[in-house]
Amino acid sequence: MKEALKEQVTTVMARIPEGRVTTYGTIARMTEGATARSVGYVLRTLPAGHDLPWFRIVRSGGVLADHGGADDQRRRLQDEGIVFDERGRIPARFFWP
């Protein structure tokens, strides 16, 4: 993946407000050529100790991706006031933009 595209993804990611989430696909559409899959790749390759709000990015439909950090992600989102319905989905009112 080109460095310029990675930079676009991380720039959009940094803009997600506290208490809101967005999807991999939404971030991809805000760039010049990324795909939802490539957004996931950028997240997986972020350096240790970064301060980007990776946990505010969820799958379409408002569900968390199945990964090793899902429990931490859920806790962080709840700490920001985001709620989950009985099926584990985040209601549309929490989505940005």
TrEMBL record:
Residues 6-82 form the Methylated-DNA-[protein]-cysteine S-methyltransferase DNA binding domain. Keywords: DNA damage. Pfam families: DNA_binding_1 (PF01035). CDD domains: ATase. The keyword DNA damage applies. PANTHER family: 6-O-METHYLGUANINE DNA METHYLTRANSFERASE (PTHR42942), ALKYLTRANSFERASE-LIKE PROTEIN 1 (PTHR42942:SF1). This is MGMT family protein. It comes from Larsenimonas suaedae.
